[in-house]
Design brief:
The protein is built from 12 helices and 23 strands. It is α/β, with parallel strands linked by helices and about 450 residues long. The relative contact order is 0.14.
Length: about 450
Amino acid sequence: MYFRPKVVAALAVLALVPLGTPQAQAFPATPKQTVLNYLKSITGQGIVSGQHNKEPAAQPAQYTQQVKDVTGLYPGLWGGDMMFRADDVDNRQRVIDQARTEWNNGSLVALTWHACSPTVARTCEFEGGVKRQITPDQFREIVTGGTTLNNVWRSRMAEVVPYLRQLKDARIPVLWRPFHEMNESWNWWGNQPGANGGAKIYQQMKDYFDSQGLDNLIWVWNVQDNPAGGWANYYPGAGYVDVVSLDVWYKGLPSASDYQQLQNIAGTKPIALAELGKVPTASLLGSQPRWSYFMLWSEQLRGSNTDAEIRTAYALPRVLNQGEVVLPGGSNPPQSRTGQITGVGGKCVDVAGASTANGTAVQLWDCNGGTAQRWTVGTDNTIRALGKCLDVTSGGTANGTRIQLWDCNGSGAQQWQRTGSQLRNPQSGRNLDAPGGNTANGTRLQIWDANANPWQQWTLPS
């Protein structure tokens, strides 16, 4: 069992989630090193959840909102794209505005760029524009200064600079992932191993963006889990890379050999899952603990995962969602709170007979200030009384499953998240509920589908 960790680093604090849907906490203006230090600090213990948002650029948070709709939570990392089609390029400002919003809401920011080949127009369709084969001579011209194609490519990069500069001026660090999957051949920049191939075009972009003062960019190097291997042949060098990342499309989840190969390249740098179709599992994160963030690819969120799988992934103790990451200078880390929990009819959540035996019923009762009604709302998503945890009997997920007191064990049956005034158990996707709104003393609490009835409304200790 993996428990949600606490990590305190010199320049970054991993603040653990308070009970309930984490509250939006604006990040402070910060240098990129602060975010890098944070990613390093959680290595081996936590992983930031992420969601990519593809076209249209006019809706730059549509898939992030789907995460919220399914889980009641926002990801800890928002992903966007500088795009390629004409109407999306025209809406790049909306992407940048959304990046600002996400940062201000307490999510890290990542951007990629499906750039049109310099051999076609500045805007293009994916087929034939981004997904395009170019000749070795054309690629060589693109990376050779002073040539026609090199000048075209520099002009394309120059178009992106003012947008990225807005985020630099706002002191928002960006996980910038150019030339992704450079070991693949579907893209015009890919399948170019060696010092004069993908590594060179990556180096040239970094050198150019550095010359433009874009010191807020966290440079994310990326390959796909191509079984051909040899990923290091595309690596531009440690001085050009901040984060080493993998896209997983040949398999559902990264293999042990994928994990090891990426670590061999990264050394002490953070590693990340930059694109996934399947949400991570507890087993994966237990056996491959060094991943610092994962990013679900847009429509694959619900195209390749059930809602139950998504909810389970977001509730994993290792997974850090919006509100669970606090950078230095931000809001104070949340604290545990102790007191009564009141519900329908003004009755209190009560441990029957103040018993500490496993399986003791949790019920409604007249508030009396006793120890059986003294609950600690923890920063680890648990609710505790008498040294035990509020627990869904046998880890059940069905409507009507009773609530009990049990030894705290870190399981999903003991995780509770606040959504407004409701208490949700993410493992089941159901809420703490007083059956039928019954307010009689001794009414046994249960889980039930979320609804707007007053018997799912709870007031927690302040």
